[in-house]
């Protein structure tokens, strides 16, 4: 995001906001309050209309104040543990309940391997075969 300004409810919610995230990085945001947080996520994921600024994804301009292309980007966020389905395994929550999943058959061993690989890449050691409700709260927030 480059110098993004957006308005909501008659107020500037993001004002000359800059943000960079590089391939392979995982970003966790811990805001002081929720002021502008939904708008920030909407700018990145859904190309919210901007008053000023630009949004790039993979070095491609996907949104600018001059053009308003309201479409979804390949960006997903998991905000709180309330978004998790407590009776499912961690891998099911990460891979299957996301918007746009089109699979009819679920190969449990493949999604387990993918999640283990993902957790290893970020240095996390979490049992992927446990249901979310049996995970410690810290693991739920840390991993999802």
Which structural traits does this protein have?
single chain; 144 residues; alpha+beta; 2 domains; four-stranded antiparallel β-sheet; 4 helices; 26% helix
Please, could you describe this protein's structure?
The protein has 2 domains: 2-64, no CATH class; 81-143, no CATH class. The protein contains 4 helices and 4 strands; from the N terminus they run E-E-H-E-E-H-H-H. The protein has helices at residues 37-46, 90-95, 108-121, 137-143; strands at 2-8, 11-17, 52-57, 60-64. It has a 4-stranded antiparallel beta sheet, covered by helices on one side.
SSE diagram, text form:
Blueprint: E1 2-8, E2 11-17, H1 37-46, E3 52-57, E4 60-64, H2 90-95, H3 108-121, H4 137-143
Antiparallel strand pairs: 1-2, 1-3, 3-4
Task: Outline the low-pLDDT stretches.
Answer: none
Radius of gyration: 17 Å
Mean pLDDT: 76
- N-to-C order of helices and strands: EEHEEHHH
How many individual β-strands?
4
- What portion of the residues fall into strands of 2 or more residues? 15-25%
The class by helix and strand makeup works out as alpha+beta
Estimate the global geometry from the Cα principal axes: elongated
Number of helices: 4
Give the % helix. 25-40%
Give the N-terminus to C-terminus distance in angstroms: 24 Å
Largest sheet: 4 strands, antiparallel
Q: Order of strands in the sheet with the most strands?
A: 2-1-3-4
Query: How many domain modules?
Result: 2
